[in-house]
Amino acid sequence: MLPKEQWPARLAEWADIEFRLSFSGIHTKRELKVFQDYFVKYKEPSYEHNRDPIPLLYRLWLCPDQSDESWEAVLAKVLTAPQAIKVESIRESQVILFQEADSSRYDGVDGAPLGFMGGVEKRLVDFFSNHIDHEGNRLIRNSAWNFGVYEQLKYWLNGQRCNPYQIARHMISLWVEKIQNPEYINECAKSVVLKKSIIDYFKVVKSSHMRDSIDQDLKAYAAQIACYMSSPDAPELLRKWWAAI
After folding, report:
1. What pTM, to 2 d.p., does this model score?
2. Cα separation, 97 vs 128, whole angstroms
3. Which of 111, 145, 132, 141 is nearest to 20 (CA)?
């Protein structure tokens, strides 16, 4: 627990975090109170029904000590939890990353927060990408990438208002890994919805790559995708779709 004299300052900071978590609509009041106690007091909750009340993602985000060493210690603690608890903690974290941290609704407009976590998203993605779980798998997996991610990226690539901390724009390597999977390519070939999502995404990437009046991050992203899709390393089916645009 943190010393009581630190609680007031932490409580003042909590207001912004509570706003973001409440806006998401994915947590109960009871869950928010557990998160608050962890952030303000560094109070550790007990495990309940084979579940960690605070997913790994939130343990890292809300930890009072944001140093790399502290994050390493938080991860180590989660990985020593009982099997069912650590598996669920990591699974929940991936779901939240892709459903909330990647969502375009956190655009800072009409009362929405600007970004789900306000800017720490990329650091969290990098941490999850560079660390492994108890089974030797990366904490963030390409299985979490679904066709909805293409839709979220299109907001940014089209220059529409969107979440400025969207995580998918930092995960080209994860996407490349995903599309190298033969099972995913078979799914692309069979699913009309997935095919349309990818082709629409390719169209936007190509138009973005050719525009001059876009921000440098977007231009760099579009250039990387264009380079990869023009190389023999890209899956043949997707290369055909790309070339046909």
Report:
1. 0.90
2. 10
3. 111
